[in-house]
Amino acid sequence: xxxxxxxxxxxxxxxxxxxxxxxxxxxxxxxxxxxxxxGYMLGGAFGAAIGAYxxxxxxxxxxxxxxxxxxxxxxxxxxxxRFKADQIVTGIAxxxxxxxxxxxxxxxxxxxxSNSPRVVGFGADNVGGALALASNPLVWVGVVVMPAxxxxxxxxxxxxxxxxxxxxxxxxxxxxxxxxxxxYAAVLGSGMLAALGGAYLAxxxxxxxxxxxxxxxxxxxxxxxxxxxxxxxxxLACLLFAGAETLQIRLQAAQLVPSQxxxxxPYVLTIVAVAGVVGRSVxxxxxxRTSE
Amino acid sequence: MSGHTGAFAEPTPVPxxxxxxxxxxxxxxxxLLPPLVxxxxxxxxxxxxxxxxxxxPGAVWRLLxxxxxxxxxxxxxxxxxxxxxxxxxLAVAFALRAGLFNIGAEGQLAAGGFGAALAGLALPAGTPxxxxxxxxxxxxxxxxxAVGAVPGVLRARFxxxxxxxxxxxxxxxxxxxxxxxxxxxxxxxxxxxxTIRAGAVPRLASSIEAFHGSAASWxxxxxxxxxxxxxxxxxxxxxxxxxxxxxxxxxxxxxxxVNVPRAWRNALMLSGAIAGLGGVNYVxxxxxxxEDGFAGGAGFLGxxxxxxxxxxxxxxxxxxxxxxxLSQGGLAINAMVPKQMVDVLQGIVILAVAAAVPEVRRxxxxxxxx
Lengths: 292, 370
Prior knowledge:
The structure holds 2 protein chains of 2 kinds.
Chain A: H1 2-29, H2 37-55, H3 58-82, H4 87-110, H5 129-134, H6 137-155, H7 157-167, H8 169-174, H9 179-205, H10 216-226, H11 231-251, H12 259-275
Chain B: H1 2-9, H2 16-52, H3 57-68, H4 72-97, H5 105-122, H6 129-158, H7 162-185, H8 219-236, H9 238-248, H10 250-255, H11 260-277, H12 279-287, H13 298-308, H14 313-332, H15 340-369
């Protein structure tokens, strides 16, 4: 029973990471740096709260959240692909913009600087624990998102094109792959996926709170890098990071390790991975470069 | 890169004077373009946001101007914010000159502030002010530099990408500082350290009465000296020349005898030290203690400052003043429009400048070719 609870809590924590990391893996495999996952998630969470509040339905919330992710990713895509803006700078700008616009609109819509009113979520309120988790359709989508992405990336024409434009855009262009169009699709997809993670958060907590994603987009990015830009490995990294967090919450009473040190685990592992101490993590070769 | 292709495309020799004039014009365009784009975008996007909130843009802008540059208190607040932003912007610009992207200024700034506070707590209360300040400032640079050294060494030794390492370092450093302050060093019921015993820098208001109440302090002088020092290092020393050469063409620099990995390591280490220096503004000049979360995004905004300031020390100062004005202006207009408006504007400005600069440069190049 304890194991089941542990697993349930791990999955609950992992779902937003899985969505955002799937988005990150998709865009980065196409050669576009995804520092903006955090912004997409925050936008998705806000959109979900607004949609669920005014539409009085969790599904409308999900759709609104995904739409916000689409718009934010569109800004990133147009900036980096059409205008060849620096991908890192653009990503950070999207994050700052997402924080600002959600705060501004929170004030505008609900006259609050901290949180939205309570909104509907998925599942029945009176069931707790693993049952509530199982009644949330986003959890099921989250669990299969990485296997699905792995299938798309490795087994479909689109996936082949994504990998081609991420590794050798010039070679891809020379055989007729519409490089920019593939990149637009990948970035827009990444925005919608990461926004789903944000929507899950807002609907799970039944409200939007200021900066509620709290760095989860960067943990997802860490999972992508730690997982060597491979969907399956990135998914496992998400589960690993979520498991560490769960362990921390479970052991909080025992005070064995300060929570701050557990929080560092994903970041330290990622640095170790890129430094190549154990199995070097190498990015797609055209990552960050927009071809002329 | 673009400059070389241009030279090959025009085989006819250009008279020296004309070439120099053209270069100067290009440099001027390069320098003026980002701030102009930023200003235009702020006016347009700001108008839209203000109208969305149902206020009159003219009145809000007037309030913003009055609350920032319209009185001594406002000016003091802008100067205070610009002092920190100058350090983080300069840190990002410095690393970019070596072709490296330091996204870790946020953590380096916090580490620097913590180092200054630690030194100020460790020194005996009677330490002569000048000695104490020098030690505290040195401690800030040392701590920021230590944080910057991690991505520097990993880049030099293992080729680890500095963007990823600096991002991760932000979280690690902030968590570590949070642990140290929360578990070991805080004043009960708060998340800040005790007040430093030595090393406090007087406020501007202590000598100029008009600044009364504003946070600006004489740390401005320390930071101004850092700006001059960085400009001198970059443009007048051999090491600075090598650093810029590595940034422009690592392969060519290596062929010319530069130790490229060492230049990378030094660039990120010094970049971290510069960001760390910014911590003295809050710790020594304003509060007198280190508080968890005092960096509050100034490290990330440093990227915007470097971008708009075109990685030039003087440009960085101007850009820092620009973003500080915006930030203080948000507080000034809060009665009419939510101050969160300036958060939105900051994001839009960075996006617009990042997108517009390469685009306009491309258009200019196209027009020149015709």
